[in-house]
Every structure is written in C-alpha cells, then in structure tokens.
Amino acid sequence: MDYTTRTLYNTYRSLSKTPSCNGLFSAEKIRAAATPAAKAAILDAASARLGYAFPPLSATMFMNFKRTGNRVDYEDVYFGKRRALNDLVLGEVLEGKGRFLDDIINGIFSLCEESAWQLPPHNSYLRDTPQLLLPDADRPVLDLFACETGAQLATIYALLKPQLDDVSEFVTKRILSELEKRIIVPYLTEHFWWMGHDEEPMCNWTIWCIQNILLTAVQIPTTSSRMLQIIEQASASTDFFLKDYGEDGCCNEGAQYYHHAGLCLYLTIDLLNRICDQAFAEMWTTPKIRNIAEYICNVHVEDIYYINYADCSPIAGRCNIREYLFGKAVSSAPLMSFAALDFCRSDAPYQPEEINLSYRLLTLLYEQEVRDYAKAHPTQDTPRNIWYESVGIFIARDDRTCLSMKAGCNDDSHNHNDTGSPILYVDGQPTLIDVGVESYTKKTFSPQRYEIWSMQSGYHNLPTINGTDQLPGPAYAAREVRVNPQITEISMDLADAYPKESGILSYLRTVSFETRPDAPALITLTDHFSFADSEGGEVICNFMTYDKPVFAENILQIGERYRFRIDGVSDCVIEEIPVRDPRLQIAWKHEIYRIRFTVLGDTFSMRGI
Q1: Predicted pLDDT of residue 22
Q2: Alpha-carbon torsion 317, 319, 322, 323, what sign?
Q3: Domain with CATH 2.70.98.70 in the chain
Q4: pTM here?
Q5: Who is most buried in 42, 333, 443, 474, counting CB within 10 A?
Q6: Helix, strand or coil for residue 16?
Q7: From 3.20.10.10, 2.70.98.70, 3.40.50.150, 3.50.50.60, which CATH number describes the 386-608 domain?
Q8: Quick one: which of 608, 578, 577, 581 has its CA closest to 595?
Q9: 271-284: pLDDT as tens digits
Q10: Could you give phi then psi for residue 36, rounded to 5 degrees?
C-alpha cells in the first residue's frame, strides 16, 4: 500500500507548524467574482424560495425504508430542504440586504432539529449489515449525507456568521453545537467502515466523506490539536482510498461516480494544502493523481454521453468547475479544455440540484475564468485509444465511432455482471448500450441485488449459456486478456465469468476496431465456444440497443446508423422493453430493445458493413 498522503502529513507534523485555512470562502469574494448572469439566476431562484416551508422528516417516513424498501419518498424531502436552503444562502450572499435571513434561519433550525442526518438506507454501524429501523440520536452515523449536511452548515456559518449573529447569536451557536455532536466527535471517536482498515476495499464513500469532514472542520472554530487529529485521520483514509486505484487512474465505479470519487479527491488534496501550508502539493505531480483526474476525458464519448459500466448512467452530467480546477492542479491542458467547453454547454451551470453548497460557490468564484479559458481553447482534441488494465476497460475510437469493452471481473464497486460486454456509439449516438441502473431501492444493495434485471449479464451484450448468466464476485472474470499495441483489438476468455453449470470449457470473444475513410469504423465481434459435453450447448447471444433493430437475411440494422452482418445463428428474437423507471428515463427517452440470437454451432460473429 502507498502511504503518500500519510508520509506528507508526517513530514508536515515534524515541522511543528500550526494548521489553518487561508480563507476558503467569504461573502465578499463571492460577490466580487460572480458574473451578472450568475447573480440574476441565483437571485431569481432565491426569491422563489422566500417563505419556503421547510417540511419535517417524521419517524414513520424514516421507518418506511425498512418497511417498504422505498427510499425515494424520504430522500425527496431530505434533499429538497437542503437545495432550498442553498438557494436562500446564495441569494443572501450575493444581495447582502438581509432579505433572505429569516428563511435561512428557518432552514438551519429545520436541519438541526432532524433526528438524524444519515439516510435510512445507511442507518447501520457495521458495513453490509441490516439497517436499523430508527436512528439513535445519541450515536450519530456518519454517512455520505450526514457529512454533506455538516459541510453545508459549516459553510453557511463561514459565509453569514455576522449577519446571523445580528439577528441572534443562538443561530450560529446552534450550528456549532450540532456540528460538534453530529460530525466532529463521532469522527474522532468512532470507526466507520469508510475510514479504511488494512486491505478492506474502499469506494467513493471514503473520499466523499473525508472531503466534507474537512470542509466542516476548516470553516468553524477548531483548535490546532483537534485539527491535527482530523488531518491525520483524513490522510490515512485518503491512502486507503487511493490503494484501490491502479496507477492508470481508472474509476471502476464509472463516470458518474468520478464526481464523488476523483473530484472529491481533488477537493480533499486542495483542502489539505490550504490547511497545511501546501504540504501536500507534490501530490499534484504524481502520475496516478493526474491519471485519476484525466479519466473523465477518456471515457467521454460525445456531448452528453459517456462510456458506462456498473451503476453508471450513460448521461453522467455536464462538467462543473471542479473538473477544470482538478485539471489546472495537475497541469492537464486536455482536462481543462474539456471541462471548460463542457461547462459552457450546460443549461444549468449554477447547479440548482446540487446539495453541496461548496460546489456552487466554486462555480461563482471561477465561472469567468473557465469561460475565458473556453474561448481561448475552442476545440477539444479527441481522446486517444486507451486500455485501463487495472479495471479491464478498453476504448477505441475515431471521429465517428467509439467502442468500449469490459474485460475485468464482476467485483467492481456498484457491480453489474457485465464482463466481456461491448458498448458502441456511432456519430455520438448510442448503438450497443449498457442500460445502467434503475432508481435505488432496498433491494439494490442487498443479497437480492442480482434479481434486478439491469444487473444481469443477460441484459448486457453477452450470451446466456445453457440457461445461465454470469455470476458476481472476483472469481467470475475474464482470463487471458490480450490487447494489441494500437488498442484496436481485444480478446479474452470469458468461460470463468459463468457458473460451472453452464458447461462451458472455453469462450473466446474477440472484438476489433478498424477505421474506415468517410464511414464509421468497422466493428467485428467473434465468439468461439467449447463445452464439456461433446454435443455442445445452447447459446443465446444478447444485445441491447436504443434504436429499434431490424434483422433480415442475416443483416442486423440498428436504427439508421449501423449495420452488422450476422453469421452462425439459427434464430433471432427482438424484445421491446418499456422504460418506466425515472432514473432510466433520464438516459432513455423511449423503449429499449433486447436482441436474442440463437447460436448455431460453436461460432457466432457480427461484422460491420
């Protein structure tokens, strides 16, 4: 394990310096930096929140997750309150006339009066154990959103303390009291799984929580000795997070989770540097950190679309200011340009849905710089072909085509059973797709996870073999993976991704990418199967599409964009799948399709024409 962050902390500690924060946010800086467009948009949003009635979160609402499995009803109220409070705070920061203060105080007290800041699905003290029906107010759980709430209230304290004190000193006193009980003391006295221990695998939780703990601690009165404790623990957890990344920087949770993993790493390092007089600055020059930063460029397809595996959606969201700042920190011109141009395409640049107030403040501080950078760098180079060996993600592309393959194992964070599945975009539009994940419920992160259809390999671009699909776990993996030097062809044996009951001895899948002049690339996929039973087995090759497919005379036409010649099949069935889940509807505006080819013999092939 690499102890880079802890080593830098120990070096800093040996110098006997006093930690501090060199002015993260102030109302004056925000007002001075905000563009006229930002001020107009934010004041409109804040004015619309005047008189907002902050709704309570009742005990029965909390219990409903355990009783019904529904988590959306509670979360809609929980996050809605926090978004409303952010709008009001930003309005007051920019206007500075006290018009929003009473509503802000209502919001602060509403959050402080909640029995718990953790979400019901996270209400447990040990990893992967059943959630408790109700929270214990005397023993807070630090989950993602408890930490987010702490950071939100600490940021409000830092921005508006004088104005709030003019109304009543008990407002900021209440903030500090709740942060002490719910954030600082639990962080320093409890061990939550996401803090890390030995080789236990971590995920976005680790760095997401650490970032918000630091945001909390640096914006409220904190003694030097206590701050050193917080920094020491944060440094250790950052190393536990980084240990699960390969040197290539690939995020196995996907592009959507980069916003909660890679970007939270950026702000964590930035905060550590601010607090500790740039003691962690050399992390910006570490190749691994730069690779983590640039991952988002490499998995971008075009416009709104990204290569997506696991629980990631193909629409991962526009870039905000943090991508640009991460690129600036690691001296990555490609990331800065990509982030700046993508930010300028956003129809919601001021992030009205974002509950982390700090992210919105960073937008106000740096918007003009980012827009100026985009003007100076109006074109974005096409990312190169890339092979992320640490996770098994292969991406080949040209000006009209983008092909990806998954060649790792079925043990990713937010895993789907998708080893060996290709994704194909033509002219920036989805052709062979990964569906993504439906709205989270109690079942999503339970032993019944793989009963959900979108998690199953049969609803990816993979075969069903003798009635079996792939299984989850590190043992269910691609073997003998080979990638050519140009990263235009990949082959792998997928037999081990299937259970023994499949009867498969070897399953060699080869996919190649051949650029053609004035046409989309020529994509060829070939599968070779061999079975323990000499008579072979039943293989049904599944493919998922967004555009309606038509199969006739061995030609598969997918919408108007791409055609394959199909060989080695005896039958084809095309199923239409309605998209009714709200989360899936973000990506898929109409029905999707599953193509099911019955393989004849031991070879299946599809070749672009």
Answers
A1: 66
A2: positive
A3: 386-608
A4: 0.96
A5: 42
A6: coil
A7: 2.70.98.70
A8: 577
A9: 999 999 999 999 99
A10: -55, -40
